[in-house]
């Protein structure tokens, strides 16, 4: 955590005016470096892109160290582990739509990175494209998450009652890391509303910030609910035993033995199959959506600095402190959401 704080404070230096703001923030500390070898330039450029990974590693290492400390001397009761099979053929619409979203996001991100270095007209166009693309991504993710939450309301799976340190860690990291992006969006909303939200860029920025807050809340609820639900195969086993008991109470001796087991399985599986499929589609789409929302800020997209409304309202030093503390947590949140959504996908 000290590494996160030191790196964030280090990035708050007021830069020169010869570069774009996003470049100046992350490259200002390397201007004084003098080296005669070409390898130095390589490391200099690479450090700009490796910075988010360093922050994520520090956050992840601190979380794992905390869990190790909490589990010293803990005795966990033995319990059976269920084998889970990953079958991509079970889903189609979610992955296809998600892949198209990732491709579109990467294309607009490249356009943004190229045009943001040019004159004001192309800079505004690049910002507009970037804002619109993010609004589309976040809106679709909100819609799919709402669908998943509705399926949870229709689903009657029981909640897991036993204590699980790993699940508690996942939930804690998820909620804690989401506060980083939430803080950035909150302060953006305050700045844009306080200045009157004049102009289409301010309107797009405000819409993106509001939708981001909504998406964070919905996705956190969806993932936490999925992690605390019993897996479908566990519920099917319980239904199988229930059906077997009911089957024995009725006079069904005319049914061949080879068809009895098939009767049990179909009676316990047919009903929830459509719910499982919808949940898997939602998880696959959200997983890919979080990947593209991780790629763009991790590899240099900084509309928070290229669009000057927040800098003018808060001053550069204060706004840079907010972003450079909140953004690493936001990037970590997207990475952790991918892992959590994959776990929910497996147990759907």
UniProtKB/TrEMBL annotation:
One of its GO terms (cellular component) is plasma membrane. It is found in: Cell membrane. The keyword Acetylation does not apply. The chain crosses the membrane at residues 90-111, 131-152, 173-194, 206-224, 282-301, 313-333. The keyword Transmembrane applies. Keywords: Cell membrane, Hydrogen ion transport, Ion channel, Ion transport, Membrane, Transmembrane, Transmembrane helix, Transport. One of its GO terms (molecular function) is proton channel activity. It is a multi-pass membrane protein. Belongs to the otopetrin family. PANTHER family: PROTON CHANNEL OTOP (PTHR21522), PROTON CHANNEL OTOP2 (PTHR21522:SF35). This is Otopetrin 2. It comes from Perca fluviatilis. The lineage of its organism: Eukaryota, Metazoa, Chordata, Craniata, Vertebrata.
